[in-house]
From TrEMBL:
AMP binds at residues 399-403, 428. GO terms for biological process: metabolite repair; nicotinamide nucleotide metabolic process. Homotetramer. It catalyses: (6R)-NADHX = (6S)-NADHX; (6S)-NADPHX + ADP = AMP + phosphate + NADPH + H(+); (6S)-NADHX + ADP = AMP + phosphate + NADH + H(+); (6R)-NADPHX = (6S)-NADPHX. Its EC number is 4.2.1.136, 5.1.99.6. Gene3D superfamilies: 3.40.1190.20, YjeF N-terminal domain (3.40.50.10260). This is Bifunctional NAD(P)H-hydrate repair enzyme. (6S)-NADPHX binds at residues 60-64, 125-131, 153, 253, 316, 367, 429.
Length: 487
């Protein structure tokens, strides 16, 4: 199992964590007390005492709100509490903490927001079961114009499992408990969460042994121990040989990918390209070898060289029959293969053939458009990426600001370190190359893809504004240096 420190829990898994903790002897009221107290602590840490409106819903999220109200009032803050629906509808731990609130409560109307300097959103959390009612959505819209919002668990309107967010407004801070939920990372919900703080409310991490989470936030902790480490007695051949299928006329894409592979540590990187493009590739590449492609038979012969340990086709390949044939020839080797861009689109009229040909380690790196040409685009991003991985038998990297990496066995990783500067031409080609470089060195495809996505994001993050794809490969040494110094 992957390290559960970065596990993301579904609503059902969080409920189970809660249940196991209660069964082991911690009362539900105590968990709620700790949850609300942790939110109050974060508020007190970040803001000076002021007038706060706490908006409480009808469930346990509202119960947390009552705890926050009590702690802030005890600390001398001016607190107004608004409650959705009749207060006597609250049950269990929420009813208990509502009783402990000795101040007044008002109905949940815009009047509660009058003169508020800060607003606590405790309307709905994990239990949101349907779209927000009009009045609640209107109240939230007014709240967003009134003062900074602190959301408990998730901003109301956010579906924690899927990242959908109808009617939600942007919080400055979201305090969640024990572990993040997918909705804290997936778009559009991520944009509404603001800064996310995970509070320890005394749920023991050992409950995760029973829950076996399958979704994780991308973090080196997941794959650092599997990263190819150079050994003192290795040579360029033991570090893997990466082969990139280079197209013509779009030669830049394959060159970017090849540089990504080499910087990710492949001992040898070769671009094979049509004779006519040899000069272009050779002038632009120095340590990366360039080899003429010849006809399909000679390509198949080249692939027979068992020293080649990783294959990539797609960047600048062109959509068509030659690309299709080359993809199938690569997949037939059973060696680790990355399929990107045109290699995917070349199968849009016949995805079945592609799926049926994947038997070895394989990573597909579509963006949303390419994904929709091959797979069912319905459902939230986690769901559809997982379904595509299961269907294809390949690791799927569904790219975007919230890239999801899914394995055929159901594991999934959501990436969160990609800055918007990565949305630039050629950036995906470099990513495909980094994955190739790691695969060529023998890293497991799912973890190689996760590591590559993270390194790619981190490289862009360290660079800042003005980034172009050419910068990315050369930023990897610094990122890798920092990473290795932590091993
Ligand atoms: N698990 C844990 O470890 C811990 C959890 N904790 C806290 O509990 C929270 C989850 O609590 P929860 O399950 O009571 O759900 P919550 O979000 O309060 O809402 C449920 C209520 O809202 C209602 N309702 C739903 N949608 C609606 C809509 N659109 N419009 C109107 N009504 C709607 C729904 O009604 P129903 O669907 O039943 O008709 C029900 O009455 C979690 O987010 C965290 O803050 C902490 O205390 C620490 C430990
Ligand atoms: K909330």
């Amino acid at each position: 199992m992957l390290d559960t420190q970065s596990a993301l829990l579904t609503v059902n898994q969080m409920t189970e964590a809660d249940r196991l903790t209660i069964a082991a002897g911690t009362a539900e009221e105590v968990l709620m007390e700790r949850a609300g107290a942790s939110v109050a602590r974060e508020i007190i840490k970040a803001w000076p005492p002021c007038r706060v409106a706490v908006l409480c819903g009808p469930g346990n999220n509202g119960g947390d709100g009552f705890v926050v109200a009590r702690h802030l009032a005890d600390a001398g803050w001016d607190v107004q509490v608004g409650v959705l629906g009749p207060r006597d509808r609250l049950k269990g731990a929420a009813a208990h903490h509502a009783r402990l609130w000795s101040g007044l409560t008002a109905p949940l109307t815009p009047a509660v927001l009058d003169s508020a300097d800060l607003i606590v959103d405790a309307i709905f959390g994990a239990g949101l079961s349907r779209a927000l009612d009009g009045p609640v959505a209107e109240l939230l819209a007014i709240a967003a114009r009134t003062a900074p919002i602190i959301a408990i668990d998730v901003p109301s309107g956010v579906i924690a499992d899927s990242g959908e967010a109808s009617g939600a407004v942007a919080a400055k801070l979201t305090v969640t408990f024990f572990r993040k939920k997918p909705g804290h990372l997936l778009l559009p919900a991520r944009h509404f969460c603001g800064k996310v703080v995970v509070a320890d409310i005394g749920i023991p991490p050992s409950v995760l042994d029973m829950i076996s989470p399958q979704t994780f936030e991308n973090d080196p902790i997941l794959w650092r121990g599997h990263f190819p480490i150079l050994s003192g007695d290795g040579n360029k051949f033991t570090r893997g040989h990466a082969l990139v299928w280079g197209g013509y006329r779009m030669t830049g894409a394959a060159r970017l990918a090849a540089r990504g592979a080499a910087r990710a540590g492949a001992g040898l990187t070769t671009v094979t390209c049509p004779e006519v493009a040899l000069g272009v590739y050779a002038t632009a590449l120095t340590s990366i070898m360039v080899q003429p492609l010849g006809d399909q038979a000679s390509f198949v012969k080249l692939l027979a060289d068992e020293r080649i340990t990783g294959l990539l086709i797609g960047p600048g390949a062109g959509v068509g029959e030659q690309t299709r044939e080359s993809v199938l020839a690569m997949l037939a080797t059973g060696r680790p293969t990355v399929l990107d861009a045109d290699a995917l689109t070349s199968f849009q009229s016949d995805p079945e053939t592609l799926m049926a040909s994947i038997s070895g380690p394989c990573v597909l790196t579509p963006h949303n458009g390419e994904f929709a040409r091959l797979f069912d685009p319905c459902g939230d991003k986690l769901l559809r990426t997982r379904a595509a991985a299961r269907r294809s038998g390949a690791v799927i990297v569904l790219k975007g600001a919230d890239t999801v990496i899914a394995a055929p066995d159901g594991r999934a990783i959501i990436n969160s370190n990609a800055p918007p500067t990565l949305a630039t031409a050629g950036s995906g080609d470099v990513l495909a190359g980094i994955i190739l470089g790691l695969l060529a060195q023998g890293m497991e495809p799912f973890l190689a893809a996760a590591a590559a996505v993270w390194l790619h994001g981190e490289a862009a993050r360290t660079f800042g504004p003005g980034l172009i794809a050419e910068d990315l490969p050369d930023l990897l040494p610094k990122v890798l240096g920092t990473l290795f110094s932590q091993i």
